[in-house]
Amino acid sequence: MMIEPSIDKLLEKTGNNRYILCTIISKRAKEIESIKRLELIGQDKKAITLACEEIVAGKVKPSNLI
Predict the structure, then answer these.
(1) What's the number of domains the chain is made of?
(2) Residue 1 included in any domain
(3) Residue 41 belongs to what domain range?
(4) Does the model's pTM come out above 0.85?
(5) 19 within some domain
(6) What's the rounded Cα separation, in Å, for the pair 17 and 31?
(7) What is the mean pLDDT of residues 32-50?
(8) Taking CA 33 as the corner, what is the angle to CA 45 and CA 25, rounded to the nearest 5 degrees?
């Protein structure tokens, strides 16, 4: 089973800093949970997956959340 997006793609967005990556993923996932709680109930994707996808797509940048 492949996990998408890959950790390598995520790390590229933070300059290979795992601490920053962990911080922005957790902060964005918490935001998604609080905003879209009811919308996430029927989906297969969890808030953390959506946060990772947004980071790789460039919708969320480290400077936006830290």
Answers:
(1) 1
(2) no
(3) 7-65
(4) no
(5) yes
(6) 22
(7) 81
(8) 75
